[in-house]
Amino acid sequence: MQLDRALDTYLRHVTIERGLSEHTISAYRRDLDMYLEWLVSEGVTDTAEISAAVVGRFIADRSGADPAPAATSLARLQSSVRGWHRFLAREGIEPDDPSGRLRPPKAPRRLPKALTIDQVESLLGAPSAEDPLGIRDRALLELLYATGARVSEAVGLDVDDLAHGDVLRLRGKGSKERIVPIGSFARAAVDAYLTRVRPGLAVKGRASARLFLGARGAPLSRQSAWLVIRAAAENAHITAEVSPHTLRHSFATHLLQGGADVRVVQELLGHASVATTQIYTHVSVDTLRDIYATSHPRAR
Residue 194, exposed/middle/buried by CB under 10 A (0-12, 13-18, 19+)? Predict the structure, then answer.
């Protein structure tokens, strides 16, 4: 099958049948566009011409690029290539999978960066309580920290997703839904936004069920939500790097530090495996020393 046609067939599959998010599909497309461009440069125009040696040369070429790609980027690229070839073999488009022997590079295990509780409180209090967009921003930040929602999940919320009192319905990866509690601080901030700000934003744009709206009444985008977080961090004078995932990391870390069971945190985060959640259970050597010194009868 011609390369472009094979790629379009695969992307339709992951969009319609697997229900992956637009963000994930865009990442697949970028990776596979790079792969197909390299294949064409090597004189390969049909999927039948791709052998294990060809796939290996591509990965070796990317690994030796200058500047060298990060291990996580290379691992994602390999995953995209393997997913495409597995699909072609499974659908009978090609007789076998030439990427079957690929092994992803081992990514360095890094602990998620979490803010301290004091930093989170400063961040949440940074937006103005008088400015309409400040009220919206505070509601967004409070909700992110209260629920551990991904930014994409938060901006994808509809007003009706809040119709269950003290719990919230989130739609995660693969359109999987989960119900999470929403604390009193976040609920109060969201209620203030709904009553004082959202009606005024809604009349500026087309009718939308989305909870969070932009200044012109359109649904708030992931990029705009990221800017809200960055501006709040700057106003709170937080020097640590604050990313869209920072409040999610802080949510999980603070729950575990407060004694929450890791499987409960797994459910709240929407992780498919508890192994993903367990990265948050790692504590620093300094913390271990402090606990040991205060708890062991013969530590001193």
Answer: middle
Tokens 């744009």, located at residue: 205
- 150 has catalytic annotation: yes
Cβ burial of 296 (10 Å; 0-12, 13-18, 19+) is exposed
**Residue 284 pLDDT level (bands cut at 50, 70, 90):** very low
Examine the pLDDT at 122 and tell me if it is beyond 90: yes
Q: Quick count: other Cβ atoms within 10 Å of Cβ 50?
A: 24
In this prediction the pTM is: 0.62
pLDDT (tens digit, 9 = 90+) per residue, 49-64? 999 999 989 988 888 7
CA angle 258, 253, 186 (to 5 degrees): 80
Cα–Cα distances in Å, from 274 out to 153, 176, 278? 20, 16, 6
For residue 67, whether the previous peptide bond is cis, meaning omega lies within 30 degrees of 0, is yes
pLDDT digits (tens, 9 = 90+) for 34-44: 999 999 999 99
Lowest mean pLDDT among 33-42, 227-236, 269-278: 269-278
Catalytic-residue membership of 280: yes
12 is catalytic: no
Annotated active-site residue in 85, 138, 187, 248? 248
Catalytic residue among 10, 145, 193, 280, which?
Answer: 280
Residues 244-283 as b or e (16 or more Cβ within 10 Å = b): bebbbbbbbbbbbeeeeeeeebbebbbbeeeeebeebeee
The pairing of strands 167-171 and 177-181 is: antiparallel
